[in-house]
Amino acid sequence: MDARPLHENVFCCFHFLPATENMSVLKTMDTRIGKYAPDFELPGIDSQVHHLRRYLEKFRAVGVISMCNRCSYVGLYIEKLKKLQAELGKDGFTLIGVNGNIAQNDPNESFDSMKAFAREYQLNFPYLWDSTQDVTRSFGATKTPTAFLIDKDGVIRYRGQVDGNAQNQDTAEKSYLKNAVTSLFKGEEIDVTQTEALGSSLVWRN
Asked: CA-CA distance, 192 to 159, in Å (whole number)?
């Protein structure tokens, strides 16, 4: 690789994660509950390339959050996401933020703006740039924020809202993502596996 800054060498590649090499590779988009998540390699604001498979080798579960810089709903959830990371990180869970919003006509969504956003909000989890939007499309995200819970085998176990009330900090009964992670770690059935994502619509390339 040449010496240009990372964001000038942005790439992404992905394939669907099988649990074993004998399982067929999934070719469908908009990955559903119980299906394998699309593996990916994406650049992060830390100047490193992040590979989902490596996270699944290290953590018991991964929460991929489709997010961006300008979305007011994301702004409402940032502190909740940081708190979730702090509470569950010690148990073998990690969040990964993925920005798949197009940046060409909105400088607020540029890679440099992502770095500024992370500094402003002091993010405690990785923030990755999906410049081609391929990973975002493969997950089937259409709004920000949208949460995807992936177990250690690479299977999506929950997708949808982070919780049921962006402006209320006390939403234990509707803490969908947190409750899903807790149930997963206890080996229990996840009560709510899917909710309708609420937020800002992603802007797509023509």
From this structure: 9
- CATH topology classification for 36-201: Glutaredoxin (3.40.30)
Give pLDDT tens digits along the chain (206 positions): 333 333 333 344 444 454 333 322 323 367 899 999 999 999 999 999 999 999 999 999 999 999 999 999 999 999 999 999 999 999 999 999 999 998 766 788 899 999 999 999 999 999 999 999 999 999 999 999 999 999 999 999 999 999 988 766 555 568 999 999 999 999 999 999 999 999 999 988 87
Query: What is the spatial distance between Cα 44 and Cα 6, in angstroms, rounded to a whole number?
Result: 9
Domain ranges of the chain: 36-201
Whether 66 contacts 73, CB under 8 Å: no
pTM listed for this prediction: 0.84
